[in-house]
Amino acid sequence: MDLNSYADLAVRLVNSTTLGRDSGDALATAESYRVLVADRPHLAGRVTAADLGALRLLRAELRLIFAAADRGETAQVAERLNALLTRHPIHQELVSHDSKQWHIHLVESGSAADRHAAGAIAGLTSLVTAYGTDRFGICEADGCGRAFIGSATSAGKRYCSDECKPKAKVRPLRATGSGQGPPSTAAS
Question: Which residues pair with 105 in a beta bridge?
Answer without folding.
Answer: 93
